[in-house]
């Protein structure tokens, strides 16, 4: 086990290059199961989670090699097998192989994901969606076994909640189905647009990209893909919030500003200066101006609303403001695990169900302390708090961070932060 040490109280200055998006890489790697041959995926981040889904492809019989940021994946000889609990419990997104395996082989067996720190996170929308295609799903011994005789039959699937991986899984099942499938109230995250671009490049016929209604005309077979993973909007947002919290001037490069509409508005409303370029965003909040940081309410919503994956990070920033704000988490039922840890650093936060009332204590309101990471985005919230707090913060269980932030220590150090890892 390792811990991260953050010596806070220093402004951040400089540029950071954004990596490929974790939440695009995972579905796009799963989508290679849909077509035999060698797929080429560029700008793939090297993360714990991408390594996990690649070991899952190993289990299924695919072969792959990495050359820098490019992955060559050959799924010609995949064989039916079950995806073990050991793999799924480390990463829920393993369920994303269900859709492509059903499309390609007509059967799949995957362990049901357990809950996780941020909520129960069931996959009923995925299961119900598959059954709409004529698939039979057996749930027993902690596994879901899905199978169908012959091809999936085109259908209509309505999502009660616009589920991101639910939309991705059903989309990947639909592209090889017989006939037309319509998805209603589908999620609209940019990562889904990246997946649609990949599937269309493989020969799929999909209309409605970016909207909440997708129409898919099934085809008989697909060709291997060549695709570039989009930049990680959550990584980019994390560094911008860190710049506001520590003070200074941070430019995130190779990002897509249009994928962060809500965050950029909220950062500007809080008093930071936000300058948008074509593929970059610069955030500036001089250290001397940090005492004019305002409290700004946020309410997490499906894209293009404020992203739940940037809620914890923004909360850390708001503890440094000179005002109050209400943070409402509407996507997950337990995504305030970072609150108790931020309180250990002096934050004034009161929670009531899915609402958190933050009373900022000004730019010097936090002090370093030993804290513990509980989930990926809560961990980055603690790093941000540590950067803003005077003296030293030690963050335990930083394997959570390594799931979703490529080269975090190097990137923060490049911005002038004093951070390093030590054996815990
Ligand atoms: C994706 O998770 C992301 N993960 C999450 O990012 C992100 O927080 C989430 O979307 C919301 O934006 C990946 O893309 C790999 P959902 P997902 O299905 O698809 C409920 C990170 O930090 N629901 O959109 O699992 C669910 O419980 C991670 O990178 C059902 O009830 O989320 C939640 O309340 C964390 N039944 C809501 O819908 C289902 O079958 C939205 O979940 C599916 C979901």
UniProtKB/TrEMBL annotation:
The keyword Cell cycle applies. It is found in: Cytoplasm. SUPFAM superfamilies: EPT/RTPC-like (SSF55205). It is an enzyme of class 2 (transferase). CDD domains: UdpNAET. It catalyses: phosphoenolpyruvate + UDP-N-acetyl-alpha-D-glucosamine = UDP-N-acetyl-3-O-(1-carboxyvinyl)-alpha-D-glucosamine + phosphate. Cell wall formation. Adds enolpyruvyl to UDP-N-acetylglucosamine. This is UDP-N-acetylglucosamine 1-carboxyvinyltransferase. The lineage of its organism: Bacteria, Pseudomonadati, Thermodesulfobacteriota, Desulfobulbia, Desulfobulbales. The gene is murA.
